[in-house]
Amino acid sequence: MAGSKKNNRIYIIGAGFTGTAIASEICAKGIFGRVVAFLDDDADKIGSKIGGVPVLGPIGEVVSLLRQTPADEALIAMPGASREKLKDLFQLLKKAEFAKIRILPGISQIVEGAAHLIQAREIDPQDLLARSPVTINLTKSLAYLRGKRVLITGAGGSIGSELSRQLLSGGASRLYLFGHGENSIYEIDRDLRILQEEGVGEKATIVPVIGDLKDADYTRFIFSRLKADVIFHCAAYKHVPMSEANPVEVIRNNVFGTRHLVEAASEAGSERVVFISTDKAVGPASVYGASKKIAEEIVVQARAKEGLDFIVVRFGNVLGSRGSIVPLFRRQILKGGPLTITHPEASRFFMTIPEAASLVLQAGGVGEGGNLYVLDMGDPLLIKDLAEQMIRFYGFEPEKDIPIVPVGLRPGEKLSENLWDSNEKMETTRYRKINRIIRGENAFPAVDELLAKLAPVCFRDPLQSGLYRNRKILREILSSVIPYLEAPADEPEY
Question: Is 433 labeled as catalytic in the residue annotation?
Fold first, then answer.
């Protein structure tokens, strides 16, 4: 196996700074194969040699010739390439029958051009499905975190783990990886340490922390010990149908976990909390959406009471997150279909995980405490169109090879989502893709009164033991303040 890797013939697509740096790293390591050539469309580079490696092109013409002697690997090193460019490249490289096609991260994840081979991964549908991401200078955006202690809740999740990777470049003194899932925290902890070993980012001290925000005493204790300056609160139960089946636990985790965090951060003297919210908090039709709506209010109203610099960042779906539609479609395609969608007209806002993380990090630095921000998600995408594009990515034809079957909306799901409510107004800021929400008067009832009603349902109170874990009462309390949330007629008590 090791010998075959050493003989691996690699074509690097892109002879710019990133491509040449990766070629030098491959040469220096000497165990992953050899760079046979660069492929590029730049007429000034075609025909030259870089470090003894020829530059061939134009890419479209050269790739067609490679089919006669298929190469082992193509490595796309064009961090600034648009989605359309990547789609074209992918189709060309597929036709050339490369055994493996890998890609380096987009420019928003590369600090000052310093890409590393460890960051390369096999190309994925999400690299081609979304719009071209906004370019953000991470070094500049993360300046507010230099020398700070930064804590990420839900650090093992999709957004939390990507925030953690990008935070390596922020110059933070410590990164606290907080979560209640032992395996996921182990994975992101090892991932970050390997990235650091390979020269990615700066030498922040990484501290894994296993804990549960539902435990108020523990949360106060650990926050007082860690003394984080900035907190990114990503932890939440997010799966809509699962939340409908387990409503009490979702409120315990998403609502009271957020309340415990806000109180503990306030007592510990944290400077800033950035809360990650969702478009499902707008006109919520699910317990998950309701939980995030209430959590938004906890964060926004906390500043009014405490003078804290807490902000909310709301956005839609992210491509490829755990439990989302992209991994599901992938599994369905690999077993031969069918692909199941809820409804032919169902649509969602989509953004890649890296772009969402970059914008959250930027918003965390430029946002003003007590405000709610919404990321510009572009136009919504029909889930049916997403399914068709994924089927084609894997080399099949929709309906002809793999059918697409509507199965109906599940409990708590809507045909479409909105990024702001009827009593909210969106205004642009001077930062691309980051908008501010102007909230109307009396946007939400007093959150403390609502939490007082929810508490005996979520936590055992000897004086109100009959309320503990009563789903029916939980639904009644929620629907009294969230009119879009309907309690099912057959909702059981427990």
Answer: no
